[in-house]
Amino acid sequence: MEATIEVTGLRKRFGRTVALDGMTFRVPPGRVTGFVGPNGAGKSTTMRVILGLDAPDEGRALVGGVPYRSLEEPLTRVGALLDAGALQPSRTGRDHLLWLAHSQGLGAARVDEVIGLVGLGGTARRRAGGYSLGMRQRLGIAAALLGDPPVLMLDEPFNGLDPDGIVWIRGLLRSLAAEGRAVLVSSHLMSELEGTAGQLVVAGRGRVVADMGVAELIEAASHDRVTIRTTARSRAMETLAGAGATVAVTGGDTVTASGPPAERVVELLTGGGVPFSEVTAHRATLEEAYMELTRDAVEFRADGAGR
Ligand SMILES: Nc1ncnc2c1ncn2[C@@H]1O[C@H](COP(=O)(O)OP(=O)(O)OP(=O)(O)O)[C@@H](O)[C@H]1O
């Protein structure tokens, strides 16, 4: 099966609430695609539609080129974590997984394998009712991985995880994608996706506001801003401004130049005989890039051009 998710023109209303308003994007294999956006943007509804749990009013969602409902043994095709709270409290984590595994013709050996993979260990033999949110997330991820599916879809998997858990899941997601899977992960917090997502689908009000590579997004937000530490501030400013840079004083011995990239700044300073002890290219964080992107989206909408 082709490892992709494709949603095209999804529309969905709940009474007077428009949950999806033309949601369209593709999740390719081999990278983690972050699905982000503010509360109510339509992320969970989109995932529910992909899994056939909600029917769209219009549009379609395909997994590996076909609707989810037409998949045979779906756990071996798509692994999903939607609501980590949905557990039988009296059942142990392992029994929960065994029950799921048997329904799909999978054995106990695979259950123990995924328990090891998500680091649940002995906890898996305790009743799920006593699990912390972080343990429930791990169990949910184990369930998603049971059938070794080529497509994974996780709704807010970072919720409730401690810092170690967050580092762990980032590594897991990256390695699952590196094996050629399509991995869609929703999150509110950009910082959680930093270093993990290769592609970012930003949702707002039921549609896609931006869909781009993370490297490209960060580069666009970094604006070639370079900080220079120098004992000859005025000369540095003259030299850089003379080459077309926009220069500003940012401290007793630092100036910031926008325009030329760091390598060019070094060339200019060296060429002009200006002493410096440090030249640092500013790299925007994913959070900063996201804020800038969504701010533009809001401004774009405010003048009516985006509607
Ligand atoms: N079953 C439902 N009944 C009524 N309204 C719903 C239902 N499910 C979702 N909605 C509404 O649809 C909109 C989109 O919700 P959705 O949960 O998909 O957004 P989200 O991006 O996942 O948000 P969050 O980040 O808060 O989880 C919201 O206004 C929500 O209140």
UniProtKB/TrEMBL annotation:
Transmembrane segments: none annotated. InterPro entries: AAA+_ATPase, ABC_transporter-like_ATP-bd, ABC_transporter-like_CS. The keyword Ligase does not apply. Coiled coil: none annotated. Signal peptide: none annotated. PROSITE patterns: ABC_TRANSPORTER_1, ABC_TRANSPORTER_2. Residues 5-230 form the ABC transporter domain. The keyword Transport applies. It holds the Pfam family ABC_tran. Keywords: ATP-binding, Nucleotide-binding, Transport. This is ATP-binding cassette domain-containing protein. It comes from Nonomuraea harbinensis. The lineage of its organism: Bacteria, Bacillati, Actinomycetota, Actinomycetes, Streptosporangiales.
